[in-house]
Write a structure and sequence with these properties.
The chain contains two helices and 17 strands. It is mainly beta. A hairpin with a 6-residue loop joins strand 11 (145-146) and strand 12 (153-155). Strands 9-16-10-13-14-15-17 form a seven-stranded antiparallel sheet, with no helix packed on it. Strands 7-6-5-8 form a four-stranded antiparallel sheet, with no helix packed on it. It has two domains: 3-202, Nucleic acid-binding proteins (OB fold (Dihydrolipoamide Acetyltransferase, E2P)); 227-266, Ribosomal protein L2, domain 3 (Irregular), CATH 4.10.950.10.
């Protein structure tokens, strides 16, 4: 896995970087695990924009990922490492002994031919193996961690991310999140050993505006360049800050304003990231 630069034949190529895709073994996904995905371009069911600056982008097909890792005690081997247009991580196609194939998130340094297994019992601490947190030694790097038993992995799914198992106490485990947050989960939650691959993703330079349009992101317009009727920051002579705290177009504060209101799960957060 590496990053390549481009010959600066145009202004857009001058700072642009991209992937070499050395780790990708095929450009054709397994058809039975590919679905159509309806894009809404930030609109609701009545056609109104609920999320601004979205729309367009390249046509994509969704790959069905096995986040639950609930095929227990059946050994599988990595058949291919593939690109997934819907996520920053790479995905791996696993062929199990009974012939079934499933996609999983590709851990770092995993190669074609590696054997993996998921089990509710204790298995070998090898990248790609999945088991309940209670069977994983303290200090182990994990990813694709469940927040609720049986729901499937919700934590540590992006490129290069890793979760550290800090401690076990009672029926809970203490995890250190990629953000630095300390959080408690049940010891029965499933997790996968190792960190996610494609850690170089954070170092990519887009280089030109058109490349973000391919991702379905439209130009983001600052409030300070709008008119007063369109945004609270708008108006004024020349460049101006507007003389008020940063807010959304609807007047809600955007910096330092606490938006978390889920008191039910606050008991599981030991230390916030800030």
């Amino acid at each position: 896995m590496g990053i390549k630069t481009y010959k600066p034949t145009t202004p857009g190529q001058r700072e642009k970087t991209g992937f070499t895709f050395d780790e990708i073994t095929t450009d054709r996904p397994f058809r039975k695990l590919v679905e159509s995905f309806k894009r809404h371009a930030g609109r609701n069911n009545q056609g109104g924009i609920t999320s601004r600056f979205r729309g367009g982008g390249h046509k994509r097909k969704y790959r069905v990922i096995d986040f639950k890792r609930n095929k227990y005690d059946v050994t599988g081997s990595i058949e291919t490492i593939e690109y997934d247009p819907y996520r920053t991580a790479r995905i791996a196609l696993v062929k199990y002994m009974d012939g079934e194939r499933r996609y999983i998130l590709a851990p770092a340094d995993i190669k074609v031919g590696h054997s993996i297994i998921a089990s509710r019992k204790e298995v070998e601490i090898v990248a790609g193996n999945a088991m309940p947190v209670k069977n994983i030694p303290v200090g182990t790097i994990i990813h694709n961690v469940e927040l609720h038993v049986g729901r499937g992995g919700q934590i540590g799914r992006t490129a290069g991310s890793m979760v550290t198992l800090m401690a076990k106490e009672g029926g809970n485990a203490l995890l250190k999140m990629p953000s630095g947050e300390l959080r408690k989960i049940s010891l029965e939650c499933m997790a996968t050993i190792g960190s996610i691959g494609n850690s170089e993703h954070a170092n990519i330079k887009v280089g030109k505006a058109g490349r973000t349009r391919w991702l379905g992101k439209r130009p983001h317009v600052r409030g300070t360049v709008m008119n007063p009727i369109d945004h609270p920051h708008g108006g004024g002579e020349g460049k101006t800050k507007g003389g008020r705290i940063p807010v959304t177009p609807w007047g809600k504060p955007t910096k330092g304003y606490k938006t978390r209101r889920n008191k039910r799960t606050s008991q599981f957060i030991v230390k916030r990231r800030k």
